[in-house]
């Protein structure tokens, strides 16, 4: 079977929409146009269904490219299954069809899987050429995870809710299938966030700080670490994005002398994160390294995290590289000092652990509401569930004296 990706990257999505509306898909996506033509004798509405999928992804992808990528992957493979295997429109599927698709996701056919992540399309003489090695699924030796299943149900549920509002269908069977799915496990276990230990954080911070003396450009790494842990930032909140560029004037001081950092968080929600006195000192240090005055002015358009070469701020991938550089330095130092277990654990850490580390530590000393607002959680219950571990520890302590 020859597989053709239904959806290109987000920046090409408007062109795909226009091509279907204008009937010119063959000019830039000939393989996709041929794929649609071959299936339309079975599903006459297929082209209009694909147009609706594009419109759905455009609405949700405009806010976040990460959301676009997640929804694209889930909805694309669902449509391919519905059309190629089930031979039906996605708008005529019933409960038992959604159940059958769930079974397929748990154990996809081998010819639907690739061994690694593959690119979809590339330019070739003015046309978008399909990668013949692309497949809807990645072959995994382990059983499908709960997170994968949850992501699938979320994407399908949002898709059908959108379709209901647009009057493309008249039922949404996803919630009932999810509720009765034999593959989903009801969560009741202790689920603590991934964090650095005190020793690991001390090494990450201090090894980077010491290295700045010989390599001044590591001041960038140091400030990124301070922001991610001390301000509980997601790494995307420091990055350059299509509709938001973090600049120095986003650090601001109120009339009482308190400092804040304005952040564009999930769902394009703005929030102001409080700065501690220590973070203000790291801000001063970083700005002096860049040759700027110690504290920002209200009109400064300099990117918060600058590129050594080139203009503008840094992408998520570039920021992750800075964090990983500091993690690698700390891991080497831990091994050298004999902390092999700590070094092994640090080797699996990601940048997001710094947000969890800062919030978990400060949950012991800050009011829950204040912490929740700085984290950008819509509900205080989310902060309580993730970071407040008091009840778990008290339960463990009370269980120590049990007798057989």
Describe this structure in words.
This protein is mainly alpha-helical. The protein has 17 helices and seven strands. The strands form three sheets. A three-stranded antiparallel β-sheet has the order 5-6-7. It has a two-stranded parallel sheet with strand order 1-4. A hairpin with a 5-residue loop joins strand 6 and strand 7. Helix 10 runs antiparallel to helix 11 and helix 10 crosses helix 14 (352-362). The longest helix has 21 residues, at 65-85. The termini are far apart.
Topology at a glance:
Layout: H1 13-22, H2 25-28, H3 30-39, H4 46-61, H5 65-85, H6 95-106, E1 113-114, E2 121-124, E3 127-130, E4 137-138, H7 146-165, H8 174-179, H9 198-211, H10 218-230, E5 251-253, E6 259-264, E7 270-274, H11 277-289, H12 316-336, H13 340-346, H14 352-362, H15 368-375, H16 380-387, H17 390-398
Parallel strand pairs: 1-4
Antiparallel strand pairs: 2-3, 5-6, 6-7
Main attributes of the structure:
single chain, 404 residues, mainly alpha, 3-stranded antiparallel β-sheet, two-stranded parallel ribbon, 17 helices, globular
């Amino acid at each position: 079977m020859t597989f053709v990706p239904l959806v290109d990257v987000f920046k090409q999505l408007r062109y795909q929409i226009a091509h279907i509306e204008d009937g010119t898909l063959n000019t830039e996506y000939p393989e996709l146009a041929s794929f649609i033509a071959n299936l339309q004798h079975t599903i006459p509405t297929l082209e209009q269904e694909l147009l609706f999928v594009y419109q759905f992804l455009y609405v949700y992808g405009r806010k976040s490219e990460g959301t676009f990528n997640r929804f694209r992957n889930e909805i694309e493979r669902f449509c391919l299954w519905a059309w190629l295997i089930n031979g039906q429109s996605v708008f005529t599927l019933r409960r038992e069809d959604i159940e059958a698709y769930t079974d397929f996701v748990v154990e996809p056919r081998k010819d639907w899987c690739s061994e690694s992540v593959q690119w979809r399309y590339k330019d070739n003489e003015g046309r978008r050429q399909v990668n013949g090695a692309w497949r809807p699924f990645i072959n995994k030796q382990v059983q499908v995870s709960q997170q994968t299943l949850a992501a699938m149900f979320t994407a399908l549920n949002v898709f059908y809710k959108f379709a209901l509002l647009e009057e493309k269908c008249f039922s949404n069977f996803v919630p009932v299938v999810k509720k009765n799915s034999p593959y989903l496990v009801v969560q009741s276990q202790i689920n603590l966030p991934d964090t650095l230990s005190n020793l690991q954080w001390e090494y990450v911070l201090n090894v980077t700080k010491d290295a700045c003396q010989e390599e001044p450009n590591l001041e960038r790494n140091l400030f990124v670490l301070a922001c991610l842990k001390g301000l509980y930032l997601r790494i995307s909140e420091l990055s350059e994005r299509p509709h938001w560029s973090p600049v120095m004037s986003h650090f601001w001081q109120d009339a009482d002398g308190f400092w804040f950092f304005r952040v564009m968080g999930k769902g394009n929600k703005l929030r102001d994160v409080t700065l501690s006195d220590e973070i203000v000192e790291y801000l001063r240090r970083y700005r002096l390294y860049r040759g700027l005055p110690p504290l920002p002015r209200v009109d400064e358009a300099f990117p918060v995290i600058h590129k050594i070469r080139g203009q503008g701020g840094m992408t998520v991938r570039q920021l992750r590289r800075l964090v990983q550089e500091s993690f690698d330095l700390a891991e080497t130092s831990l091994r050298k000092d004999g902390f092999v277990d700590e070094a092994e654990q640090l080797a699996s850490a990601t940048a997001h652990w710094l947000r969890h580390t800062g919030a978990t530590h400060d949950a012991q000393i800050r009011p829950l509401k204040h912490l929740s607002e700085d984290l950008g959680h819509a509900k205080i219950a989310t902060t309580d569930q993730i970071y407040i571990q008091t009840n778990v520890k008290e339960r463990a302590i009370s269980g120590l004296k049990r007798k057989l």
